Amino acid sequence: MATTGKVFIVGAGPGDPDLMTVRGLRALQQADVVLYDRLANPALLREIPAHAKTIYVGKGPGHKAFSQAQIEYMLICEARLGQTVVRLKGGDPFVFGRGGEECQSLAENGIPFAVVPGISSALAVPAYAGIPVTHRQTATSFTVVTGHTAGQDEYAIEWARIPAQGTLVILMGVKQLGRIAVDLVAHGRDPHTPVAIIEQGTTADQRTITGTLADIAAIAQAQGVRPPAVIVVGEVAALHHQLRWFDPAAYYQTQPAELFAEQPTFVGD
Question: What is the pLDDT of residue 250?
Fold first, then answer.
């Protein structure tokens, strides 16, 4: 009987493959099987051994290659075959990445695992837009929330429990942006509070749209904003115009084109 393998739950960072951690790369270089998400840059798969098997398990609006239960089942089965398995997830696996659920499933089934943290899009994407989530003069705290919750009601944010001061970083909130803006004002935020939406953050397609809580939903609709995008609410969002340093076009010209040309292979369509 084969010795049980091990699963590495690895954060791939926010999109730019250069933001992958050294420990994450080492895990990929030792992998026998890699299950990777939609927001993990496929260029990272060049780091895996030639014999390794790759399985695309990404989820997007209206599309799931596999259900969460199926993903967890595959992790368990591959590990029981003695394989070294990498679960490659965008951002950080424990920041709205369902990494906790996968670790629970592995623990309950006696599968050894390790977690390799990644750079969260909640921090890196605002930074690439020139927006510090904290600032000694304007924001001494920040809160990260998801605009997409589990259950029948995909929007069930308890705004009364979320501070009305400091920076608010919202992940997966584009679909509910109008509702979010209205609710934030209803719970104490000034309608003139600056807002920035960073689309495709840290990549060659990065785009930043700015406004206020009063008008950001209309601006985003007019600009055709689509996920993935990170929303930043607070005075620090106004710093984008002064501190923006990342030039996506220039970055694209200095990087190998294949980093951005690769597309994930959909399995199970």
Answer: 81
Q: Write out pLDDT tens, residues 24-39.
A: 999 999 999 999 998 8
- Residue 247 is a catalytic residue: no
Amino acid at 160: A
In the residue annotation, 175 being an active-site residue is answered as: no
Residue 59 bears catalytic tag: yes
Task: Decide yes or no: CATH 1.10.10.60 for domain 122-248.
Answer: no
Does residue 261 surpass a pLDDT of 50?
no
Catalytic residue among 16, 32, 37, 92: 37
- Residues 101-138 pLDDT 10s: 999 999 999 999 999 999 999 999 999 999 999 999 99
**Where do the structural domains in the chain lie, given as residue ranges?**
6-119, 122-248
β-strand partners of 112 = none
| Residues contacting residue 78 through CB under 8 Å, at least 6 positions apart | 5, 7, 32, 33, 85
Which long-range CB contacts under 8 A does 46-54 form with residues at least 24 apart? 48/86, 54/265
In the CATH hierarchy, which fold is given to the domain comprising 6-119?
Cobalt-precorrin-4 Transmethylase; domain 1 (3.40.1010)
Q: Which of 16, 20, 89, 172 is catalytic?
A: 172
This prediction has a pTM of 0.88
Identify the CA nearest to 120 among candidates 136, 101, 144, 138: 144
Rounded to whole angstroms, the Cα distance separating 95 from 65 reads: 21
Catalytic residue among 59, 175, 183, 215: 59
**pLDDT attached to residue 256:** 57
